[in-house]
Each structure stands twice: as C-alpha cells, then as structure tokens.
C-alpha cells in the first residue's frame, strides 16, 4: 500500500534536493519516516525531493503504484525534538504555515563543517590500532603539555575563564500552545505580537550556515566558557579589520622524509622531520598526523581558510618523485599555517609541532583533548573579540559590497589559476618530451653531418669536423637542460597554484556563513519596522552578525596579504630561474661558436 500525503500549505523550494508544494496537492511519499523534520516524496508534477513534514498531512489510502525507493536513506535520522501533531486542516488565511521543524537541541552532532574534509582512508597511511584505541589517558590533566593548562568544566572560578552566552529569555508560550516553538503566534493573538516574532530558521538544515553554528550564534543560542587563551582578536588595521598578529611568530621546516617500518617490517610508512623555529626540537610526523590535524582545524574554524593538504595517493607512495613532491606540498602548507595569526597559535597545531615523537601517551592525551574541544560550532564565534567604541561598528551595506567584490575576485582568480595551471603543465610536458626530443634530433643531424665530413681525410678539414661534432653535443646538452628545467621554475608555480586552489575552494562556505548572518539581520529589521520584534532583540542579532562580519573581513585581508607575498616571491623565483636557464643555453651555444674560430 503506497503512502500519500496532502499539502496543508504552499511551500517553495529554495535549495537543491527540495520540491515545491501547492496547497491541497496530493503527494506520493517514499517513506512515512521523516528525516530530521523532512519527508521525501513525489509531487503532482513528477518532481521528487524533500519537503517539510509539518507542511503535509499523511493520508492512508492505497495507490496504483508502489512507492519509489528512498534516495535519502543514508541521511542520519533523529537528533531533533519531536514535532507536535499536525493541526487540523484550515484554509491558509486562517492558520499560518508552521515552522518546518523545531531547532536542534544543544550539542546536536552535525556533520563536520564544510562537508569537504574526509578522513584518511585506504592504503594511504592507514590508521593504526595504537592511534585509535579506547585508551582514557586523554582524560588526564595537562594533555597539551605545560603550555596549555587544563581548566575546570564549570563553576566560573577557574582563572582566565569566562562564561559567555548569547541566549535570551524565550518570549513564546509553552509547547502545545497551537504553534511550533520559534514560530510567530497566529494573527489576533493580542498585544504579545511584538515580543513573539522571531527570525525564521533556514529550511535547509544541511547548509554551511547551519552546520558551522553560524545560525545558532546569530539567533542567540550559543553559550559556553571562554578561556583567555581561546580569544581570537580582530583589530582595525590600515586595510580594515585584521587578525591580531602573533606576538611570537615562528616558522617550521619539513625535511628528510624517510621510509620507516613497524610490526617487524609488516607496515611501512614515510615520516617527515619537522623542526619548529620557536622550539628548535625536531619531531617526526606521518601524513596521517597531518590529515588528522587538518580535519580538526577545518571543523573548528568555519570562517578561516585552512589550507588543503597535498592529495592522497593509494599507489606509488614510496616512489622518490612522489615523496619529493609531497614534501614540497607539505612545506607550502606548513608555511601558510605558521603565517596565519590564528591557526599558528591553535592548541591542536602547537601540540602537533611540539609533542615528542617518542611520547605516545602525551600524543594521545593532546589528540583526545583536541577532539573534545567545546569551542566549536556556535561556541566558536564566542571566542572572537572585535573592536568596540566609536567608529568601530561596520556598515552592513559596505560589508556586503566588500564580500560581493571578494566573491567575484575569487571566482576570477580560480578560473585564471586553472588556466595557468593547465598551460604550465602542458608547457612542462612539452619541455620534458617534445623540446628535448627536437633539440636532440637537431644534434643528431649535426653529428651525422660531422661523420660524413670525416670521410675526407685532408688535414685542413679536421677542425671543421670537430667544431660540427661539438655543436651536435651542445644541442644534445640543451635538450637535457629543457627536460630538467620545469622542476626548477614551472613545478614550484604549479605547487603554489594547487595550494591557492584549495583556499579558493574554502571561501564559498566562508562567504555563505557571512551572507546567512546578513540575511538574519535584514529579517530582524523588517520585523522591527512591522512592530513584531523588540528593537533590543534585533540589535543583538546585528551585533552578533557584526562579529561574523569582522572575522570574515579579517580573513579576506589576510588572504590578500599572504597572496601578494607568495606570488611576488614565486614570480621572482620563476623569472630568475628562466634567466639562469637561458644563460646556460647561451653558454652552450657560445662554446660551440668559439670552436669555429680556429678552423
């Protein structure tokens, strides 16, 4: 027996995977079980997708066709409070449509922010039992070393620890009052209309704005303890908002990748030697350690572009060329990590750099502690400290204009980077194969001519024969120079482009969080103008949006600053290498030319 439902209200789809509904429309359901407040089905126009469960009423009647198989069966179910039973059907003019589903409870485990990070899998540095055991040593104090003291979980008495909250007292009545929580009272509710209006929630609960915790923070639902060491300060610089500089800057080299084994040679891996300049103590890390760190940082910092790691590779991991290329990619990654004022000071990153390679217990303690970090999601935004006082507030229209301009910039830069990468790769391929082959063909032709001339045994032609033979050798050597040159100039350019393509892939999500906050501000202002929301509540939403805007602009400014530094340095290196290359070619040709002086 097929399941069907009748639409109680109109619903317009706004995101991929959703379908629109018309009031009174009958739909076929794929399953009666809702997916976090959403059902999947097919509307009368044959469109298939998701729609709010509270917008329809299930009707139990046989249908001519069996229900189609559910495509969203792999989406996790549960985690939200149950919906109140649907109200009896009334015309839309008499009853407003309900909120699609109530807000998630505090601590709901959304998937990791951004959706792009996948933990290391397959044969590329597989996770070992000694890394993922169920040891509880991480619960011991001081997991990140003496530089990162442990703090009490509550009580507010710990030094340098402050409880921050954006929660406000609820202005709605209790559940069961005829409307879902978070939705305005129906019209005609008396004088409580001004205090009952709330800013609506995004219907797409899998959007970046929701998963990052940005929505919960802007709507005033974040609450947590912030340590002094967790504060991320934004200051006003000459170019606008900037992250406060790291007072103790440092660099970290990545050297001597070596193949090591364990389990009596049954398991092989590559270990990289890291030497941070602020400690001078070397540690060894495998790719899986980098991969774990990237995952933690990408989840923790939704408005910061965490650089992408070099790509994984299932085969050929122990080949010399691959190891060398990965080391160079990791060196660029490490440079960007150390150069970022926020990422460089993150506890998890410092633990990664400083924990001794031989101290397995200390490593596990720090790893578990980082994974239990409470300042993630909505609480992360509590750690951001922005300028206050006269002249420190942001004009939201100007912010929106700047963000739109940066969005257009990143799109154009991404297209240009792809084009340059393709061009450089094709040119390098021609140098390694085509150019080398062509120059050596010329050299071979000169050599054949020289051999033909040698058939003349007269003494006065011997010098000419030797000069032509030397010219052949010169062209053969020039072919080798062409084949070796890409690794000196074009490969470093492509390595840099790969790193920045990762950054450019991060910014759409960062911009989405900021845009989502701006949308909530505009909605709250409209409620104030209509007399449905108190001004104080709307100002709180704008203040929290301001925090996200400050952080977004600070990250944009850091990106531009580091971009100018990197591309200036890389272009200088490229041109210097090109000059040296052509000087070598010229030298070979001049040497061949001088051979004819004595003929």
TrEMBL record:
Sites where the protein binds a 1,2-diacyl-sn-glycero-3-phospho-(1D-myo-inositol-4,5-bisphosphate): 286, 288, 326
Record's protein name: SNX18 protein
Example of a GO MF term: phosphatidylinositol binding
Ranges of residues in domain PX: 250-360
UniProt feature, compositional bias: Acidic residues: 123-133
UniProt record, GO biological process: cleavage furrow formation; endocytosis; endosomal transport; mitotic cell cycle; plasma membrane tubulation; protein transport
Superkingdom assignment: Eukaryota
